[in-house]
Structure formats: C-alpha cells, structure tokens
Specification:
Blueprint: E1 3-6, H1 12-23, E2 27-32, H2 39-48, E3 52-56, H3 62-76, E4 81-84, H4 99-127, E5 130-135, H5 148-168, E6 173-180, H6 186-192, H7 202-213, H8 221-233, E7 239-242, H9 246-254, H10 258-265, H11 269-280
Parallel strand pairs: 1-2, 1-4, 2-3, 4-5, 5-6, 6-7
Helix pairs in contact: 1-8, 3-4, 4-5, 6-7
Length: 299
C-alpha cells in the first residue's frame, strides 16, 4: 500500500486531502500541530474505517518534523508522497503589519515546507522514487495588496519548487505546485471577515471580493481531488491551477503589464469596484451583495 504524509490536516484542504487519499487506498499519515483539533477528521476516519494515522507535526519546529518523519519511516516504512499543505494566511499593508507577522508566515509557509522536504528527500532519493506536492495559491503568481504577508511566502514557494524539480528529476522524484483560487476554507473566510482600520484602501475591498466569491463556495474537495490525481497520474507537470477562478485570473494578470497591474491595485474604491464588476462579472461592493453571486472569472 502506497503511503502519503500530509501536513496541516486539522481542517480545510488538508483534511479533505487526507480523506481523499485514504478512500483511494493509501496509507495516510495525517499530521497537524495540535492533534486535538482534528475531531472532524477523526470522526470520519472512524465512521468509514479509513487507513489514516493522526499524529503531531509542527512544521515550524526542526525537531518536531525530524522526529515525526523518523517515527513514520521506522514504524510504517517509506513515504511515497509528501503533501505540504500546512499554512497561514495573514493580510495587511507593509507599513502597518508587524515584522513578526511576516516572519511567522514565512516560517510556516516556506521554511516549514523546506523542513519537511529535507526530512523525506534522502529516502526518496535512495529509492529513486517519490512525489512532492506543495500547496501554493494563485497568490504565488498574482500579487495583490493587502495579501502581501501571505503572497510573499507563495512567491518564494513557487521559485523554490521550480528549482527543486530540476534537482530531483534525475532521481525520478516528481514535484508539483497546486494553485487554488478562492476556496471555501477557514483561512478564506477569515480574509472575507477582516474588519480593517487601515489607512490603505485595499484591505476592505479584497475582503469584500472574498466574501462575494464565497457566496458561491468552492469546496476544499476540489483541491483534494487535484492533489490525488497528481499523485496517481504520474504527471511531471509542475503547476496545477484549481478552481474556476484560478487559471483565468492568472491569465488575466499575464495579460497586463506590470505597470497596468500596479495601477489596477491602486485605483480608488469606486473605480476598483467598477473594474471588478466589468472584468469579473462580480459586484463585490458589500452593500450590493446578493444570495447568488457568480464565480470570479475574468471576461
């Protein structure tokens, strides 16, 4: 039975990914910083009698990662697939956000990935077999204030993964980046509900954009299915957009010059909301939101 190690499985994309792999017959090592938070995952495991082991792994800690991986290798054997999903999504302007927030995001979303890869890679290399899947975001290719603390980590992860793929391909190890759009996760809902007192205008309107998109929620299972497909298909494709808004939004950004994109993000509120309505077919103004909203999809 093939095995998979997944980080950040207490909820959202990580939890659904653990369940998808288990239902497909994998031996799943579902890890999280605090296993006490995985109650919903545990209930599903018990109900469906799935081959999932829940254990502690804090991606911010060298010793926690090393001890968790060593234990898995010792007790269960090789890890065939590593899914780096654990992450946080802070927002805020560069001026107003404490440096500790930037450091915390980079520690989890970027250095945490490196820790896990360094722990599993030697055994994969020796076996000349393995698959590493890093959960990125469209924010890894599209910079939009005030997601700066978050997107900086994903830009770093994208470049890191592209270089890693070159290093490990001669050893028959695949690397993939999964780029979800706005998915209905606790992190996305947190962004949608941010109440900003910033002197900068981007925070409230990006929160409104998320809230509007979440009126037609895209479930984490969409991402889980893509991750499982990457592992099973044997694909060597590096980047995998997920969700109805992901690939279109990335292409939308590619269609602009850098200067045009900066101007787009710097528009005043009225012009910005009108541009979103015209280009995406989404009226994101908080006072105009209805029960049925279209998905974000550039026209």
């Amino acid at each position: 039975m093939a095995s998979v190690l997944i980080t950040g499985t207490s909820s959202g994309i990580g939890m659904f990914t653990a369940l998808a792999f288990a239902r497909a017959g994998y031996s799943v090592h579902a890890t999280m910083r605090n296993p006490g938070r995985g109650s919903e995952l545990r209930r599903t495991i018990e109900k469906e009698r799935l081959p999932v082991t829940v254990s502690a792994l804090d991606v911010d800690s060298d010793s926690s990662v090393r001890e968790a991986v060593d234990r898995i290798l010792r007790e269960s054997g090789p890890i065939d697939v590593l899914v780096n999903n654990a992450g946080i999504a802070p927002t805020g302007s560069v001026e107003e956000t404490p440096l500790t927030i930037f450091r915390s995001a980079m520690e989890t979303n970027y250095f945490g990935v490196i820790r896990c890869i360094q722990a599993v890679l030697p055994a994969m290399r020796e076996r000349r077999s393995g698959c590493i899947i890093n959960i990125s975001s469209i924010a890894g290719q599209v910079a939009a204030a005030p997601l700066t603390p978050y997107l900086a980590t994903k830009f770093a992860l994208e470049g890191f993964s592209e270089a890693l793929a070159q290093e490990v391909k001669p050893f028959n190890i695949r690397v993939a980046l999964v780029q979800p759009g706005i998915i209905d996760t606790p992190a996305a809902r947190d962004i949608a509900e941010v109440q900003s007192r910033s002197v900068y205008p981007q925070q409230p309107r990006v929160s409104a954009l998320f809230a509007g998109s979440l009126q037609t929620p895209r479930p984490p299972s969409l991402v889980a299915e893509k991750v499982l497909d990457i592992a099973q298909s044997g694909t060597w494709q590096l980047r995998h957009p997920v969700g109805p808004d992901s690939a279109p939004f990335i292409e939308y950004r590619k269609g602009m010059s850098d200067e045009d994109w900066v101007d787009w993000g710097a528009l005043d509120d009225d012009a910005w909301y009108e541009r979103v309505k015209t280009d995406f077919g989404l009226d994101a103004r908080p006072w105009s939101r209805t029960a049925e909203m279209p998905a974000i999809s550039p026209k």
